[in-house]
Amino acid sequence: MFGSKIVVALATMGLLLVTTPAIAAESGSGLGWSVTFLSRSYDSATDRTTFSYRVSSGSDGSKVKALSHFVVGLPSCESKLEVLATAPSEAVEIGTDPTTGVYGVKWDLSLEPGQSRDYSLTIAGNHAVSEAKVAVKAGKPTATISLSGISCASGDDDTPGDDTPGD
Q1: Which of 28, 36, 112, 166 has the greatest number of beta carbons closer than 10 A?
Q2: Which is nearest to 64 in space by CA: 9, 161, 143, 162?
């Protein structure tokens, strides 16, 4: 089982928010930096899906170089994905990162060893979870990691989270 599923009905606003939290095994590391898939949430009222990640340095900060940027890969879908929002919202580019070769959303924000930061991107429509690439760059080297991420396939509102790997 990939993880527990939570459905929160916001009755006062008439919204349905579906969240699929990740479990500890849904992380990977490279260059002393750990990337964790935190969640996928779908807001039916606005027809938007948000994917969230956390980037943090490993335990041995003395050997870890500062992170220069982080990239969340976007799949090549039949119809182009529309990125509606990112957090953080500054220093964001969409395209192929020339240093990692990953096409996606790139945050060009440095992160020092011992620090962590949460990142999220919101996409128009209801998107399922599938395997995706994320990339980190610390100094000259780069690392690409396979984690849960955005799928071209539609999410299933009737059974929240059934689009998650391992379910």
Answers
A1: 36
A2: 143
